[in-house]
Amino acid sequence: MQPFTLEVPPSIVFGAGAHARLPELARRFGRRLLLLTGSGWYGKSPWKPRFAELLAQYDVATLQVPPGEPECETLDELLAEARNLKPDLILAVGGGSVLDSAKAIAGLLPHPGRVEQYLEGVAESLAIPGPGAPWIALPTTAGTGAEATKNAVVRARRLGYKRSVRSLFLLASCVVVDPELSRDCAQVLTGISGMDALTQLLESFVSRKATPVTRALARQAFPVMLSSLKALSTRLDDLEARAGAAYGALVSGITLANAGLGAAHGFASGLGGMYDVPHGLICALFLRPVLRFNADVIRADCELLRSAVTEHDGAEPQGSRDPVEWLVGEVDGLFDRYGLPADLRAFGVRPEDAAEIARRSSGSSMSGNPKELPLGERERMLAKLL
Q: Fewer beta carbons within 10 angstroms: which end of the chain, N or C?
């Protein structure tokens, strides 16, 4: 049996209505609570008074994460405010950017220095020396799986790339996944987030670093995620489909944290550090060419995923007889269902930057790809999307 390590948050609470358990879950950490939310969703959401009611017994301060992906400079400002507030607990309610921001802030709260100093892959980067502040994750989208991971993905705009602050000390103290919180998620965001989770399940399943336990988890969750995304494309308020997507995203976070990812996420690291393109969309756009590049070594794995879909749906999947092309067809179908952009032209990505983007698309995600992806092939994949 292959040796493995499984690193997961110590407590995960899943299910519709799970948010109601917040008072009891937070009680053991103290009374001073820092609520970290997005700048848009929470303030306009009907959930705001509900959370105020649930947290009435706590001394609550609130900080808002600006729109977009976390950046070093913004996180440094939030971290300074959090250090002044000295909370006993951080409660993060939001999408992947909010959760990653909370992760970095909680991890660095008791330790000196700036966020950039702790980014992996940076010269003389620091390791987080010990535990940070406890934090509870409540995801409001089904995408990144950030609630279950030990890394916070951060854009270092000055350096021109995205990197992670990574440590076991960043794992959430408790994860509360309540699909009710994602019911008002817009269609495009639902699609882009969901495609990110689907890509994570796929890439962690075929990763060179996969283990029997991560493969079992990903294989079981993949058809749940796929069928939920199909259902949500026409019924956004379908709570059962929301639950399936929330489950798929949660499992994708667990599997990526323990098995790594692949080339589609490698491109997201390089391109996302230079241009403002939604992370999930980058992953989805590159998933199809990456699948075809890996086809000769992942065909059997793709057949296993197709059989899992058959078991879940109770019907034979339609499409190509070749399992890789069948999978590409399923991704194509999701692009059509959600009306997602077919390329990068709308985002102002300059063709002359393709070589530099390809060069920066390296790191831990690319190393998990089933086959080595040469620099020239990366450039060709980029050129077809520009």
A: N
**Closest-CA residue to 248 (of 219, 275, 273):** 219
Q: In the structure, what pLDDT confidence band is assigned to residue 155 with cuts at 50, 70 and 90?
A: confident
* Structure tokens belonging to residue 321: 């007889």
Q: How many CB atoms lie within 10 A of CB 377?
A: 15
- Tell me: pLDDT of 364 over 80: no
Q: What is the pLDDT of residues 298-315, one digit of tens each?
A: 999 999 999 999 999 988
Q: Name the CATH superfamily housing domain 185-384.
A: Dehydroquinate synthase-like - alpha domain (1.20.1090.10)
In angstroms, the Cα distances linking 47 to 22, 94, 182 are 13, 11, 11
Tokens of 231: 């259902």
Reported pTM: 0.95
Q: Give per-residue pLDDT as tens, 54-88.
A: 999 999 999 999 988 899 999 999 999 999 999 99
* Domain-wise residue ranges, the chain: 12-180, 185-384
What token pair was written down for 27?
């009680």
The token pair that represents 332 in the structure block: 């194509």
Listed as own residue / partner, the contacts of 226-230 with beta carbons closer than 8 Å and 24 or more positions apart are 226/198, 226/309, 226/330, 227/309, 227/312, 227/313, 228/142, 228/194, 229/190, 229/191, 229/194, 229/195, 229/198, 229/334, 229/337, 230/333, 230/334, 230/337
CATH 3.40.50.1970 correct for 12-180: yes
How distant, in Å, are the alpha carbons of 40, 145, 204, 374 from that of 325? 39, 26, 19, 22
Q: What is the pLDDT of residues 270-306, one digit of tens each?
A: 898 888 899 999 999 999 999 999 999 999 999 999 9
What pLDDT sits at residue 217? Answer: 98
